[in-house]
Amino acid sequence: MSDGSAPGAGSWTRAAYYRKENPGAQVAGTGHGSYGFNKTMSAQQGRRVRDVIPMAGLLLLCFFWSLDSLREEFAPSAALRLPPFAREAMNLGLLSAVAALFATIRRAAWPRGRQIWDCLLIGLGLFVAPAALGALSDSTVPELTRVALYSLTPVFAVAFEPYLGRLTESQSKGGLLAALGCVIGTLGLFPLWTPQTLDAAGGFLAIILAVVCIAAANCWAVRFVSDLPRRSASTVAAIAGGSSAAVFAVASVFTERVQWDAAVQRTELAWSAAVELPALLLLFWLMRRMSAVRMTTRFVVAPLIVNVAGLILLRPSLSLRSGLGLLLIIISAGWLLIAREDESEMGALPLNLDRS
User: Fold this and answer.
1) With 192 labelled, which of 6, 10, 265, 313 sits at a CA distance of 20 to 30 A?
2) pLDDT of residue 40
3) Dihedral-angle region of residue 315 (phi above 0 means left; psi in -120 to 50 means alpha; beta otherwise)
């Protein structure tokens, strides 16, 4: 069998003859044209991979967070838990220790000067302020209403991202309808509750302020971590987690009665290491790889996972309103996660907010 019978050999021979008769001419599918096409395809495939891996990380984060809700719902031992502030101090203290170890092993550059204050601000906005505001509304706002209010986080992130995050206004406003769709879908799943007393109204407002703090801090954290050298996310996690753990520990000493039971401590430590720690590490890992708008969909996707798990395990009857709300959440959250963000425009702040 001659070489010319191989697939594509005839076209290669014709191309060689054409080049011989027309020196300097380019043949489609050969030479630099083929190299450029292959290079473009490789770049597109690399971009798809870069998009898929952070999305998988976000879904894994939502899965870890949903486990905590499922534990409270289905585990009878859920009552044997540390108080909220003590539990947060344990989780964030473990995060700080592990992140500092990672930073030391990888020889990451630690923040200095004003950057340290930025790390403290991130910890305050993501963890301390929302927990304090949530504690004010524990007895006044039902749990399902809290979930519905926290679904507003992507909406506020869309509003804050052009000024505090790394996306421009044109990139962020495209997600506004999808973020509102998540809110409407959540209200379809959970009953709408309105405060009837001043205390209830104060708790309602406290949850909204907590949502605003999380959205603003997440936008700022994404911008801040993206501007740092690579491998620096672990240092931000160490400082933000450590400072927040210290605040929670002090608050627990003055406001909570912690029963230092060995069995409870072992259970909480094991849960923190297996579930809470990976989720917190993923949270800071995503800050360099995803916009804040996408990151805040965790407040919609995690309850969605809980509801789907409840439907599978308990098999309750699903009303039309709940079914439509569930479908709207899936479509809206999927749009926020899949919609392309043009990386070439990232980094420009409309208000010229320069931290240097």
Assistant:
1) 313
2) 54
3) left
65: burial class by Cβ within 10 Å (0-12, 13-18, 19+)?
buried
pLDDT beneath 50, residues of the chain: 1-2, 5-20, 26-30, 79, 343-356
Q: How far is CA 221 from CA 124, 217, 238, 284, in A?
A: 11, 6, 14, 9
CA-nearest of 180, 200, 111, 115 to 335 is: 180
pTM of the entire structure?
A: 0.80
> And the tokens for 92?
């964030």
Residue 84 is inside which H or E element, if any?
helix 84-105
Token look-up 């749990």 returns: 143
> DSSP label at 287?
T
**What's the CA gap between 66 and 312, in Å, rounded?**
14
If we measure between CA atoms, which residue out of 350, 354, 239, 337 comes closest to residue 289? 337
The predicted pLDDT at position 71 comes to 77
How far is it, in rounded angstroms, from Cα 36 to Cα 32? 6
10 Å Cβ neighbour count for 90? 22
8 Å CB contact between 211 and 95: no
- State residue 1's pLDDT score: 47
Token pair in block for residue 2: 């001659």
Element (H, E) at 63: helix 31-74
- Strand stretches in the chain, DSSP E: none
